[in-house]
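User: Predict structure, ligand iron/sulfur cluster.
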Amino acid sequence: MPPADYMTKHWGITQGCSPVGEGCRNCWAATWAKRHAANPTQPHWNADDPMKVVCREDLLDRPRRWKKAQMIGVSFLGDLFHEDVPQEFINRVFEVMAWTPHHRYLVLTKRAHRIVDCVTSFEQIHHPALGREMASVDLRNVWFGASAWDQTSFDAAADAMLPLVDLGLNTWISLEPLLGPINTWNGAAEHWTPSGEPVDCDVRSEIGDVFKWVVVGGESGKNARPMHPQWVRDIRDQCAAAGVPFYFKQGSSFGGNDKHDRTLDGQTHLQLPPSIGDVMNRK
Ligand code: SF4
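Assistant: Predicted complex:
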C-alpha cells in the first residue's frame, strides 16, 4: 500500500518482498524498488534483484532520533513479516518500537499469520516471567495491520489477527486494492430471515471484533483493476454499524478515473482511531 497522509514518517527498516496473491499483481513497491535500484546513489538496493529482501540495520536507530511524536509507516516498500526477515531482526524492530512509546507505528503485512508467532517470540525473550499482558503493554503504540483484497483474504486475515486482540494489541486492516465485495459480518446467515429481513439479535461484527480501523482504497496505475463503489459503500456501512473508524483512501484509476478522487457519493470518509488522530492533530 502506498504511503498515505495519515503517516508523518516512513521507516523502511526492511525492503523487498515477493507476491502472495492477486492483491500483489500490480505491486506498488516493486515499481519503486526498480526506480531505487537504478539510482547509483541508493546502494542498499540490489540492481539485479530490486525486490530482494534486505534488513536495514543502519536504520534501526532512526525513530529514536525523532524527538517529536510521529505516525510512522513501517516497511511500506516491503513486508516486515516476509519469510526472509529473520525473527531476531523483527525482535530488534519491536525493541525500537517499545523504546519509543511517544511514536505510533503502522505495520502492514499480507502475512498476518506470522505476526502472532513474532509477538509471542518477542514476549518470551523480554518478559519470560511476566506473561502475556506485559508484552501487550509494551507494544501498545504499534498498530498491527493486515492487508486483504477480497473475501478469502479478509477471512484469513481476520482469523490470523484475532489472537492479537486477545493480547490487547491494536489491529487494523487495509483493503487496498479492493478487488471484490467483502462481507465482514460474522455468521451473517444466522441473523437474517429467509425473506431477507434482519433479525434483532446480538449480532457480532467480525470487523469490530478484530479490527479497530479499516482503510479502503482502489488500485492505481495503468493496469489498475476496477473497484465497484457498492463494495466500498457496503464496507463503510458495516464499519458504521460496528463503530469502527473507516478511511476511504482513494478510488481506482481503472478506466481513466481519477485516483485522487477520495469521495464516495460526494462525501469524504477520513476517520482515524483516537490514538492515531491524537498524533496527527499535533502536526
Ligand atoms: S506483499 Fe505487498 S510489497 Fe509484497 S509483493 Fe505483495 S503487494 Fe508487493
